[in-house]
Amino acid sequence: MKIHVQIFCALFSLAIATKVDYSGHMVIRVVPQTEEQVKFLSTLESSSSIDFWTRSVAANRFTDIHVTPESYNRIARALLENGMNHKIHIANLGELEKEEQQSIALRRALFSNNKAIDVENYHTYEEIMAYLADLASTNPLVSTLVAGTSVEGREIVQATISSDRSANKPIAWFDCNIHAREWITAATCVWIIDTITTGYGTDAEITALVDQYDWKFVPVANPDGYVYSWTNDRMWRKNRAINIGASCVGVDLNRNFPSGFGGEGSSNLACSETHHGVSALSEPESQALQALIAADSARVKSAISMHSYSQLWLSSYSYKTALPVEYPEMLNAMKAGVDAIVATYGTPYEYGSTGTVLYIASGTTTDHYYENEGIVHSYTIELRDQGRYGFQLPASLIVPTATETWNGIKAYMNAI
Ligand SMILES: [Zn+2]
Q1: Cα-to-centroid distance, 179 and ligand 1 (Å)
Q2: Measured between alpha carbons, how far is residue 267 from residues 65, 81, 271, 295, 407 in Å?
Q3: What fold characterizes domain 26-91?
Q4: Distance (Å, whole) CA 21 – CA 415
Q5: How far is the CA of 12 from the centre of ligand 1 (A)?
Q6: Percentage, residues of the chain above pLDDT 90
Q7: Beta strand pairing call for 312-315 and 300-308
Q8: Strands 377-383 and 300-308
Q9: Measured in whole angstroms, how far is the alpha carbon of residue 53 from the centre of its chain?
Q10: Which residue of 16, 22, 354, 371 has the fewest C-beta atoms within 10 A of its own C-beta?
């Protein structure tokens, strides 16, 4: 009953908020051919408020840029002046958002189950928290911990699945949805939590993995941003920190960690989507993740940060192109994961260090967990898709995405 009241309240607040209208907004795709063009795109991102959805470090890999009806001509001209043509990749973001909302509503209407929530659908922050609380009170494997509170006072909750809490087993750790608009990441983590908790004792592989490891998840690492992406702005990425002396809100939490803080691939401009904040770990959300991982670092065998989109499994380093000394071992681990993902439905994935495969990004969780907490198996997984829907993956694709990802994680955990 309590859950239903919360769901109603969440939907009600959704209905009364004024949302950003993305009608006529587009996503354009460019493929840089030279080092200079790659460099130009990197500088453009960190020196402006232009919303890069993905960016390439290497020539011949795509970069997707969100443009408004007003900014389109200006950005297209700047690209052309630097020798780059573009293609219109998503013609109308507003239409995709409508489709997404319809897919969520359709699933809600059809859902009649005895579970607290439909783990095959997208859910608000309140619904996910209610689900975790329900699980902790009904399933002896599950406990929850409030790791801290967000800028706006929301709880940052970690769920632990353990068959023996006194055994101090090695830990498989996950942070999800640190970037607010990447809804598939929280949905995938919730689906995996459900799959592990229902599979323990009946599924031999899951039972063995739970007996071997404690599983810890922070399903919504950026609660304020996530709520805001439901109520006000579907494309919101950062947290909701007020930046003193600036009109723009928010810090990119995945640029707020100490490794390479403030360097390339992050911005000191408050209006940039990759704004790193005033200092490393300045944000309460980053502090909460840091406290969780530091408390357990001796036991954390694997730390995975879930992101979307691009279909990549990425290791350190993010903030430089140099490779970690354990890179051969990391490549084996990533290959095991990616092979199992590809074997599930044929979804193509690439893997390698962030700095050599994707782009230079400073102050990330993955580098911090690796470099400062000593966790060799620290990775970022960029889930589906490759830009057809971008961040607005239809609800019908949650199960296939989560299924292949979970297969990848199982194979990877068995390989490390
Ligand atoms: Zn992300």
Answers
A1: 5
A2: 17, 23, 9, 30, 36
A3: Alpha-Beta Plaits (3.30.70)
A4: 46
A5: 28
A6: 86
A7: unpaired
A8: parallel
A9: 13
A10: 16
CA 286 to ligand 1 center in whole angstroms: 14
- Residue 2 burial (10 A CB sphere; 0-12, 13-18, 19+): exposed
DSSP assignment of 351-404: EEEHHHHT---SS-HHHHHHHTT--SEEEEEEES-SSSSTT---GGGHHHHHHH
Which residues have a Cβ under 8 Å from the Cβ of 282 and sit 6 or more positions away? 251, 256
- pLDDT score of 18: 83
Give domain limits for the chain: 26-91, 121-233+275-415
Q: How far is the CA of 307 from the centre of ligand 1 (A)?
A: 4
Q: Span 121-233+275-415: which CATH code?
A: 3.40.630.10
Q: Give the residue numbers annotated as catalytic, written as ranges.
A: 382
Using one digit for the tens of pLDDT, what is the confidence trace for 114-155? Answer: 667 899 999 999 999 999 999 999 999 999 999 999 999 999
Work out the number of other CB atoms within 10 angstroms of the CB of residue 345.
Answer: 11
Distance from first CA to last CA of the chain, Å, rounded? 43
Q: Which amino acid is at 261?
A: F
Q: Of 176, 354, 141, which is closest to residue 265 (Cα–Cα)?
A: 354
Chain segment 329-373, per-residue pLDDT in tens: 999 999 999 999 999 999 999 999 999 888 889 999 999 999 999
Q: What is the DSSP string of 265-299?
A: T-BS-TTSTTB--SSTT-SHHHHHHHHHHHHHTTT
- The SS3 assignment for 144 reads strand
Tell me what pLDDT residue 56 has.
Answer: 74
* In contact, 218 and 144? CB cutoff 8 Å: no
Q: Which residues line ion ligand 1, judged by CB < 5 Å?
A: 179, 307
Beta bridge partners of residue 305, listed in sequence order: 175, 380
Question: Over the stretch 368-395, which tens digit does the pLDDT of each residue have?
Answer: 999 999 999 999 999 999 999 999 999 9
Tokens linked to 398:
């949650």
